[in-house]
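We modelled the chain as a single entity of 328 amino acids. Its sequence is:
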Amino acid sequence: MPRVASTAWLGFLLGACVIASLAGQSTACTVFKFDISGFAANVRHLLLAYGVLSENGTIFLDNRNFPYKCTELGGWHDFFDSEPIIKEWTPKAEAAALDAPCRHVDKAGIAKIVDRIRIPWTQYEELAISKAWVLRPWVAVEVSQHLAVLEAAAKPTIALHIRGGDKVAEDQQEEIKRATTFPEDYVETFVSRFPDVQGGTCIILGDDHAWVAEASRLAQERINCTLQPLSPFYRQEGHKQAQFNSLPYEERCEQSMRLLTDMEIMAHADYFVGTFNSGMPWMIDTMRHVLYGKHRSTMADASIHHWDWYERIREYYREYAEEQVACG
């Protein structure tokens, strides 16, 4: 063994230490800590934590750094009625837990555990979302009003999630360097995946005003759909996490409700197109399939990779057809 271990080897050892520390306690409560990053990034890791650790003790959620809240002491439990599955953490609650002392795990910690176990993330999300995604009554009432409008719209309903803002800058980061998904990519993906679908109602949800306008124009032109009017995103240039995190709590509460409503609209629409460059469409895909019984073939990933589940099946049949033609 060389004197200086490689970065990969150090990463493996750190991951092994995390898992060993968890395994050392046969039953123990867990405190999962949200951070200041985006909604989907935090919640997807919460679902992972529930999937891995819920059978081994109480799950507490530390909301202190979670940006999506209505008050300083609020957070996830402002909007979701997840007790007793996911309990709101306080030092007093942790001290009183019958399975204390609790282990504390953040996003990086739970990701290492899941990567070591080698079960796909989506399987944990499917297990956990039906238990965690329980809207509080006041949230459900507001969401239901928007869903009633969706239900009354001309069918089919087609939701496109146009992600601009800081996601575009993220695409260009040296450690990421991925192809940006542009407005035309969403519309062309829909047309190519669902060539027989025309008309109906298009719901164009997004943050960057110019991109939403461009996607709306293209959707009308290529899909011949009627646009469902929506109030624009609060910031013309699109979402920027650091800016959102600095908003007063009242505004963060309002925008969090807008986000949850948009998510429910995307999950209930007959068709959905997003980009898997963003964590949000991964969540929407799971919500559609698990919570609302949508067939996975009704969702498409507009990124350059086209990672949606059913596209792999379409690709198989395309290749099979080409082979049959080649064989005469």
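As a brief sanity check on the tokenised model: The longest strand covers residues 157-162. The two ends are 57 Å apart (CA to CA).
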